Amino acid sequence: MRIVVAEDLYLLRDGMVRLMEAYGHQVVATAATGPETLDALLTWRPDVAVVDVRMPPAQSDEGLRAALDARREVPGLPVLILSQHVEQLYARELLADGAGGIGYFLKESVFDADQFIDALERVAGGGTAMDPAVIGKLLSAGPSNRRLAALTAREHSVLGLMAEGLSNQAIGRRLFLSESAISKYTTSLFGKLGITDDDNSNRRVLAVLAYLNSP
Amino acid sequence: MHQVRSWVASAAVGFVRACVVVAVTMLVPAVWAAAVALGIWWGAANPWSWLAPFVLVCVGTLALSRPVCRTVRHLVARWTATVLPDGYRQAGPVTQMSTGFWWNGFGYERTSRDALLDQRWRIRWRDPANWRDLRFTAIAPLTAGVVAAVPVAGVAAAVLGFSQSALPARLLGGLGLVVAVAGAPYAWRPVRPVAVRFLRASAAMALADRVDELTARRADATVTQAAEIRRIERDLHDGAQARLVALGLALATAEKLMATDPDRARALMREARAGAATSLTELRELVRGINPPVLNERGLVDAVRALALDSPLEAEVGADGQLRLDPPVESAVYFGIAELLTNAVKHARASRARISLARDAGDTAVVVEVEDDGRGGAEVRAGGGLAGLRRRLAVFDGTLEVTSPAGGPTRVRMVVPCASL
Questions:
Q1: Mutating which of B294, B309, B349 best tests the A interface, going by the most A Cβ atoms within 10 A?
Q2: Are residues A136 and A147 in the same domain?
Q3: How many structural domains is chain A composed of?
Q4: What CATH topology corresponds to B204-290?
Q5: C-beta atoms of A140 and B277 within 8 A
Q6: Which of A61, A106, A141 lies closest to B309 in CB terms?
Q7: How would you write the pLDDT of chain B (421 residues) with one tens digit per residue?
Q8: DSSP B190-259
């Protein structure tokens, strides 16, 4: 894949470039500020971009804004946002356009390189990948909590993994269950929540996230 | 019937109060009148007839002005619940020096009794409040005193008029009685506005009080800050630093084992990775407690929105535009709202909350209201969380009001003045 890496700390940027090259991907450009990021995204149109939220010049949320601006310009441009902290607020802003191709992770998710690269590839394919921390917050939030009370513990964990953006097959691997068992669970929980089941895993994730986000 | 009785009661009370006001405010003029009378009685030929009244007026006025003012303050506080701070100078401590002499803030005295006496007189006669008291004793009889004298004079006129048999005198007496009865409930009242206007602390005194208050707040703020810094140091020392040491150790061991026992080396690497993730989580919590990253990245309103999203309550946030305040104020308000939401969940067992952030009409302050549908009964107790929050806001001259009847709903209103809106 052709990747753009936007990160202001040299050590992290360098480490990420090396990691991606170790997995056989090509880093076509790097950026260290908000404007540079927007420029690189629009110039290179990468298969996927890895973008840090906080960057110079103002050390606020430049990276996030650059990613959102680029996606307004090029709808569905795959972006994976990395940050030292995850906020539901940012997750909602990223998912608002419903075009998919969005990832949102804590920086330490790169510790598990296999899973990180896997998520990166999913985002590049137009899918959605969310950090378990974001999903945990969404699942524990108040309003949806009462509606989630109808789910069994197993269905709850399946819903969480589904919201992270995993396919039935991947969920099965995580929970040590067969894919057919997982699809049984998904059917029943979609029934309980009143969401239309969709075979396209990205649309499915967006439906779940929209459900969790709805007040 | 009931109305008539209550009106009679208020007239009686008012008449007594009017008498008291007349007695107190006319005390100093009475001394002057006595002095003039004395002079006339001795006659112009007697050389003392000029000097003695003069001395009597000076000494009487100076000695009586403070007791009169104290009494008026006391009466106003008792009748109208308007507390007027007296603003007199307070005596400082008297301490014995290593030389054996006593220091009282003005000079050294041989014994503590002398020092105390000296201090008392100096404070009494150097107090700028004396001028204010003198001014009041001159003004009060001409304002509140005159008005309060109306019912008293009316009663006197009635007594005199009815004691004579002539018709005009009787008519005059009846008129006096009517005036006395009609004016009785109201005649004492002007004493309050006059006292409020002329017995207030002067600008200098108010300033001195303000300095004391600010000194106390500064001490508060510095103590709180020092405690915070100590807490952060402890957290870093026991948490992240210790973990990083362990991480280095594990990596060093793994490096050693690489050649001889690759399986154990791999296990150690995995451990190290888990350790790094844990210390990051700890650091993230710590950072959130010092200064939430969203506040840095987005400012107050979005930070509060993020807070509401993370809260288990159904919380809606209303804000007019993006308020950008000074970072310290922003931080205080943010943590205040966070604490109130936590209270709503933990103590009030609320399920919904409404947070509104707005500027006040004059654009001089930011007004934050947090409302929940919990069971109420919240109050500001000494040493409690709300009292602490009030203290933290007071550093910026902010205020916190709580209305929380039992059974709810609880409403907390924070107002922080800021010119930088």
A1: B309
A2: no
A3: 2
A4: 1.20.5
A5: no
A6: A141
A7: 778 888 888 888 888 998 899 898 888 899 989 988 888 888 777 777 778 888 888 988 888 888 999 999 999 888 887 788 777 877 777 888 888 888 887 888 888 888 889 888 888 888 878 888 888 888 888 888 888 888 888 888 888 888 887 888 888 888 888 888 888 888 888 888 888 888 887 777 778 878 888 888 888 888 888 888 888 888 888 888 888 888 888 888 888 888 898 999 999 899 898 888 888 888 998 888 888 999 988 889 999 999 998 888 888 999 877 787 888 889 999 999 999 999 998 888 888 899 999 988 777 889 999 999 888 888 888 778 888 898 888 888 889 999 988 887 899 999 998 865 4
A8: THHHHHHHHSSPPHHHHHHHHHHHHHHHHHHHHHHHHHHHHHHHHHHIIIIIHHHHHHHHHHHHHHHHTT
A157-167 core/surface letters (b: 16 or more CB in 10 A; e: else): bbbbbbbbbbb
Contacts of B294 in chain A (CB under 8 A): 85, 87, 89
- Print the domain residue range for A168: 142-213
Rounded to two decimals, the pTM is: 0.67
Chain A residue closest to B277 (CA)?
A108
In angstroms, what CA-CA distances link B102 with A126, B92, B120, B398?
A: 86, 13, 14, 42
Domain range list for chain B: 2-86+127-199, 204-290, 298-417
Domain final residue, candidates A102, A123, A140: A140
**Amino acid code (one letter) for B36:** V
Residue in A89, A92, A143 nearest the CB of B294:
A89
**Interface residues from chain B to A (CB-CB < 8 Å):** 273, 276-277, 280, 284, 287-288, 293-294, 296-298, 302, 305-306, 309-315, 351
Matching residue, tokens 């296999």: A114
Which residues of chain A have a CB within 8 Å of the CB of B309?
A: 87-89, 92, 137, 141
Instruction: Specify the amino acid at residue A30.
Output: T
Q: In A, which residues are within 8 Å of B277 by CB distance? A: 108, 111
Residue to substitute from A108, A114, A131, A145, interface B, most B β-carbons within 10 A: A108
**Could you tell me which CATH number the domain at B298-417 has?**
3.30.565.10
d(CA B353, CA B373): 7
